[in-house]
Write a structure and sequence with these properties.
The protein is α/β, with parallel strands linked by helices. It has helices at 2-16, 26-30, 67-82, 126-129, 142-150, 173-182, 199-206, 221-228, 233-246, 268-281, 292-295, 304-319, 328-338; strands spanning 22-24, 31-35, 39-41, 55-57, 97-99, 109-113, 159-162, 188-192, 210-215, 254-260, 285-290, 323-326. Helix 7 (199-206) links the parallel strand 8 (188-192) and strand 9 (210-215). The protein is globular.
Length: 348
């Protein structure tokens, strides 16, 4: 209730200041992604009609960031959306919303994914399917972070997400995370295979400034190896335990993820076994998503059993008092059915 009241007052102040609502998103307004292959993007969302991934710079040298160029490109986009011209790449994106967006220049969300190699070969990974995993064109991001910080484009409240490839296998990883901590950054999301334990991730969990997401996608070594292409199931389970031990009482900073993959784990048994494993380990927060290649097959509608699996996951989370996040594609399936009057009775 307090959040709702605060939102009402915030909207009222915005109206009094003469501001108007318009459709945009936090990536359009204040997001930046350092992608691999020397590309800087506006967002990484691609599970919608427009396919997103707008490029701000495709010739970044990894040494010096032309901040004015990035700001100028973002300003052009902002001006368009303020005039109701949503970029074609954003068409159909679930993250667009009508709101009182500010007109300041800063980055509230930074995604670092400027490496593409990994210590797994997941069947659902686009880079594996495209045979594009590589150590080439890797650069040290720390000087760029300093440049953005000195230019006041990021600050202590900036949300950092670290992905890849597999972030923990690169030599600069721990140094990068400790550097972010030194700058006072206190919102860091780590996406990792969980194979290599990271002292900096553990410290961020201990200090309540980081959360780690580990996609295990199964509850047995056999299926894990089949999906991940590496026989490291028990290693990952042990590292999940270590991160959980670092977590303060009452916190939910270790997130175990299940990606639904056609023909591998897309059934109630595998989902239930995964739930039981997470309960046994003491995990308090879970996440569900859908393999992007399979999702792209849903052009003419989502299979009903996919919704059944998502609803089953939500039910299991509820009765076991666990938090469950539906990530991008799972959320789109769920919301699509929820908006359909034909299926409304399934949602209570």
């Amino acid at each position: 209730m307090q959040g709702r009241i605060g939102r009402i007052f915030s909207d009222l102040f915005s109206k009094l200041k003469g501001k108007k609502k318009f459709v945009s998103c936090h990536w359009l307004e204040h997001g930046i992604i350092f992608d691999h292959a020397n590309i800087i993007r506006m967002c990484c969302e691609q599970s919608h009609e427009g396919k997103g991934r707008y490029i701000l710079d495709d010739k970044f040298n990894g040494i010096w960031l032309d901040i004015d160029k990035i700001k100028s490109e973002k300003e052009i986009l902002k001006l368009k959306v303020r005039n109701g011209q949503i970029p074609s790449c954003c068409k159909g994106c679930q993250f667009l919303k009508n709101d009182y967006w500010d007109d300041k220049n800063y980055f509230s969300h930074v995604l670092l994914t400027h490496w593409s190699n990994c210590n797994t070969r997941c069947v659902y990974c686009p880079a594996v399917r495209d045979n594009s995993l590589s150590d080439e064109n890797i650069y040290n991001i720390i000087p760029i972070i300093n440049q953005l910080y000195d230019a006041k484009m990021i600050n202590e409240d900036t949300y950092f997400s670290i992905a890849g490839g597999e972030a923990t296998i690169y030599p600069e990883f721990d140094k990068l995370i400790y550097h972010l901590m030194t700058l006072g950054i206190h919102k860091i999301n780590f996406n990792t295979s969980g194979i290599k334990h990271s002292h900096s991730i553990e410290q961020a969990i201990k200090d309540n400034i980081g959360e780690v997401v580990i996609s295990i996608d199964s509850a047995t070594a056999y299926l894990y190896t089949k999906i991940k292409g590496t026989n490291t199931f028990q290693v990952v389970v042990n590292n999940i335990k270590r991160y959980l031990e670092a977590q303060q009482i009452g916190e939910k900073r270790v997130i175990v993820k299940f990606i639904l993959i056609k023909g591998y784990n897309d059934n109630n048994k595998e989902l239930l076994d995964w739930f039981m494993l997470c309960l046994k380990l003491g995990v308090k927060k879970l996440a569900i998503d859908i393999d992007i290649a399979w999702f792209n097959e849903f052009e003419h509608g989502y299979p009903n059993y996919v919704l059944d699996l998502i609803l089953f996951a939500k039910h299991m989370a509820k009765i076991n008092n666990l938090d469950l996040d539906l990530y991008d594609r799972a959320s789109m399936v769920y919301n699509s059915y929820k908006a359909n009057k034909k299926y409304r009775k399934l949602f209570g």
